[in-house]
Design goal:
Helices cover 36% and strands 15% of the residues. By secondary structure, the chain is an alpha/beta fold.
Length: 228
């Protein structure tokens, strides 16, 4: 309950700042969001700065209230741990295969959560899209929920950029499902292909200068293999 109140207050505050034109945050692709009543959703998005989280939270409809994964180090201080857990943030140990965290996140998806995942694993230092990891694919398949690719630009300027009215654009792509395998496992070669397809969906919505590790693949037309 308290988490909803905090989230709602921040949502209204950010919406007001956008409405008066102070924060120049824009969104394209509303029509691609799956109906909320259908259940859980994985949001797979590129990561430029910590401000990405409030940006996507403020630009999605309030019904799509976010949960997200955050490095476990952020939960070491009791007050910080209380705040993040109140905001439905799931701690995960970076650099390890944290099965407990992944199962918690998967169950949250089954229960209807909208889970934001940065498949690069960390923020980009160069601004270009980094190589993706397969956690979003695995959780979406196990929970039976769609993945919505999202691309954001302009957040690399951080909070200072927002306060100085630098534009931010968030593009929402078409959702897609990962078909379950007979045994619930994903072979490495299949995982590589599925992850690559997901990252290309994000990269296609980004300007050339942000496409990073996927720019060459897009230039060669590899994204033509994807379902549109």
């Amino acid at each position: 309950m308290l988490g909803n109140l905090i989230y709602g207050f921040l949502y209204i505050l950010f919406k007001t700042l956008r409405a008066i034109g102070w924060w120049r945050w824009r969104v394209e692709g509303w029509e691609n969001l799956p109906p909320r009543q259908q259940g859980g959703v994985v949001i797979a998005m590129n990561h430029l700065n910590w401000i990405d989280i409030p940006v996507v939270g403020a630009l999605l409809p309030f019904a799509y209230r976010l949960s997200w994964l955050a490095k476990s180090e952020l939960f070491q201080h009791p007050l910080a741990a209380w705040f993040f857990r109140t905001m439905y943030v799931i701690p995960i140990q970076r650099g390890k295969r944290d099965l407990a965290a992944l199962e918690t996140a998967t169950q949250a998806l089954r229960d209807g959560a909208v889970l934001l995942i940065f498949p690069e694993g960390t923020r980009s230092r160069s601004g270009g899209l980094g190589t993706g990891r397969g956690g979003a694919i695995r959780m979406a398949m196990q929970a039976g929920v769609p993945i919505v690719p999202i691309a954001v630009t302009g957040t690399e300027h951080g909070l200072k950029g927002t306060l100085t009215r630098k534009p931010v654009l968030m593009r929402i792509g078409q959702p897609f499902l990962v078909a379950p395998t007979p045994d619930g496992k994903i072979p490495p070669d299949m995982m590589d292909q599925l992850t690559n397809d997901m990252m290309l969906r994000i990269a296609r919505m980004l300007p050339d200068s942000y496409q990073g590790a996927y720019r060459a693949a897009l230039a060669q037309g590899q994204d033509d293999k994807m379902t549109r």
